[in-house]
């Protein structure tokens, strides 16, 4: 069975084998370039995020896919849903803007809160941080797709499953000709 | 990898696998029995385009890692657009230049160089293997011959390509294309 799996590879000549590896590389590169392209178009370093917690219910549920933009010329407003990073936390947070102070020179500081949380986010911010600023923002929610992100969540909860799926795909692409 | 394995088994219901196997057999005949030199320029061109595209993507990845996003914007724009341009060039290259040609072989006859190009295609859900062989000589004249037969003609019940049948078919085509020239 394993023997027959690699038959295709064994019969390839040098150039066919290189092409096989390169076409696998191109599949990965295409996904990567689409992602980087989206980054450039939306201005956000992470244009698509998955909601991981229920803190924004009933607006967003665990597993919703959010589409973000982060254009510098668009002002942040109270009531908008922003995705922001907090120092010392790897995973960005999706919450709503509760209070906002804007100065004449355009700098803003704002406070956020999860719709489903009873208190604001000061407890989540870094030690001693009271406000968020523009540089903490990853993006603002512009659209969402419900439950699609559950796949990502399961993948991250069971890393072995993720690696198994990825390995199977890689082997399939490398071993099969065209 | 390149050696011919006599016991290779092909699932002849898998059109792509069967096509690849017969393509390989025909390459063997042209470059082996008929003593033509295989020319790799066409396939090397494709490999170069692919490698360039993957290189551009890797460069974008590295640059974005070294200089996180807002800084790397310009480089990303250049890389992403050139990647998609390269992909379109690659598509054009395979559809209009390669056109399914799987072997190009050169042959010296006197002070004439003849170029043989063999291309094949199989329609989806069809058992017919279509082969086109084009012969070009140095005067720029070209002639072509083609045939279209079921896979079953070349692959036995065990799933092995019958090399002798392929050799006969190709030699016949080769001779008819070569001799036509002499009659003129």
From TrEMBL, chain A:
GO CC entries: signal peptidase complex
Spans traversing the lipid bilayer: 17-35
Reaction(s) catalysed (UniProt annotation): Cleavage of hydrophobic, N-terminal signal or leader sequences from secreted and periplasmic proteins
GO terms classed as biological process: signal peptide processing
Enzyme nomenclature, EC number: 3.4.21.89
A Pfam short name: Peptidase_S24
Listed CDD domains: S26_SPase_I
Domain Peptidase S24/S26A/S26B/S26C: 35-122
Residue ranges the record marks as coiled coil: none
Membrane topology: Single-pass type II membrane protein
GO molecular-function terms, A-Z: serine-type endopeptidase activity; signal peptidase activity
Top-rank taxon: Eukaryota
Key words of the record: Endoplasmic reticulum, Hydrolase, Membrane, Protease, Signal-anchor, Transmembrane, Transmembrane helix
UniProt key word Cell membrane: no
InterPro entries in the record: LexA/Signal_pep-like_sf, Pept_S26A_signal_pept_1_CS, Pept_S26A_signal_pept_1_Ser-AS, Peptidase_S24_S26A/B/C, Peptidase_S26, Peptidase_S26B
Protein localization: Endoplasmic reticulum membrane
Function according to Swiss-Prot or TrEMBL: Catalytic component of the signal peptidase complex (SPC) which catalyzes the cleavage of N-terminal signal sequences from nascent proteins as they are translocated into the lumen of the endoplasmic reticulum. Specifically cleaves N-terminal signal peptides that contain a hydrophobic alpha-helix (h-region) shorter than 18-20 amino acids.
Family classification: Belongs to the peptidase S26B family.
Quaternary structure annotation from Swiss-Prot or TrEMBL: Component of the signal peptidase complex.
NCBIfam families attached to this UniProt entry: sigpep_I_arch
Full protein name: Signal peptidase complex catalytic subunit SEC11
From TrEMBL, chain B:
GO MF, any single term: peptidase activity
Pfam name, any one: SPC25
Subcellular location: Endoplasmic reticulum membrane
Keyword Metal-binding tagged: no
Residue ranges crossing the lipid bilayer per the database entry: 47-68, 74-96
Parts forming coiled coils: none
Organism the protein comes from: Pieris macdunnoughi
Family as reported in the entry's similarity comment: Belongs to the SPCS2 family.
Lineage: Eukaryota, Metazoa, Ecdysozoa, Arthropoda, Hexapoda
First and last residue of the signal peptide: none
A biological-process GO annotation: signal peptide processing
Functional description taken from the UniProt entry: Component of the signal peptidase complex (SPC) which catalyzes the cleavage of N-terminal signal sequences from nascent proteins as they are translocated into the lumen of the endoplasmic reticulum. Enhances the enzymatic activity of SPC and facilitates the interactions between different components of the translocation site.
Record-given protein name: Signal peptidase complex subunit 2
InterPro entries recorded: Spc2/SPCS2
GO cellular component, one term: signal peptidase complex
Membrane disposition: Multi-pass membrane protein
UniProt keyword terms in alphabetical order: Endoplasmic reticulum, Membrane, Transmembrane, Transmembrane helix
